[in-house]
Specification:
- The chain has 169 residues and is an alpha+beta fold.
- 23% of the residues lie in helices and 43% in strands.
- Strands 1, 2, 3, 4, 5, 6, 7, 8, 9, 10 and 11 form an eleven-stranded antiparallel beta sheet that branches.
Length: 169
């Protein structure tokens, strides 16, 4: 089964309410899950905002672009990482038009030749800005990164953030 088909199946299973966007994409809400996804129709790209624990155990928000190739990692001039098949760089993304310095990691899926990029803010100020962009928006957050412009849903984010544990002490 092709990765893009798997992505669409995964997207369909996590989102029961979706809204159509003007850029020919299906945008899924958080719906009590720890992620929201956008699938670009007619392409094999899909985008994700994901709440997860960082390496130091802190609750974090990651932005992810799926279905890349190793050539994509090479083309964007990533620096080789200590882990095989993983590359990194720091570069600004725009969140609702505001540049935010992001730490990008381009990494290989373990079971295929496909790669994905995940990104998170480098600074605490950037982290708070991105989280608040999702908390304060009633509908969509506009993301610009890796030469791609896409929207992710903010609907249900605050509940998902709090259910994940917020910033538990």
């Amino acid at each position: 089964m092709k990765l893009s088909t798997l992505a669409l199946i995964a997207f369909s299973s996590i989102s029961t309410s979706a809204i159509a966007s003007s850029n020919n994409a299906v945008i899924g809400d958080w719906n009590g899950e720890n992620r929201a996804m956008t699938y670009e129709l007619g392409f094999s790209w899909y985008y994700q905002a994901r709440i997860d624990s960082s390496f130091n155990g802190r609750q974090s928000l990651y932005l992810q672009i799926e279905h890349m190739s190793k050539d994509s990692c090479d083309r964007f001039n990533y620096t080789s990482y200590d882990t095989p098949n993983q590359y990194e760089r720091q570069i600004p993304w725009k969140i609702n038009g505001q540049p935010v310095k992001m730490f990008e990691v381009c990494t290989k899926y373990g079971d295929s030749d496909s790669y994905y990029v995940y990104a998170y803010p480098v600074t605490e100020t950037g982290r708070n800005f991105v989280i608040n962009a999702f908390k304060n928006s009633k509908r969509l957050v506009k993301i610009e990164g890796l030469g791609r412009d896409f929207n992710l849903s903010a609907k249900g984010f605050t509940q998902a953030w709090n259910n994940f544990g917020g910033n538990a002490i």
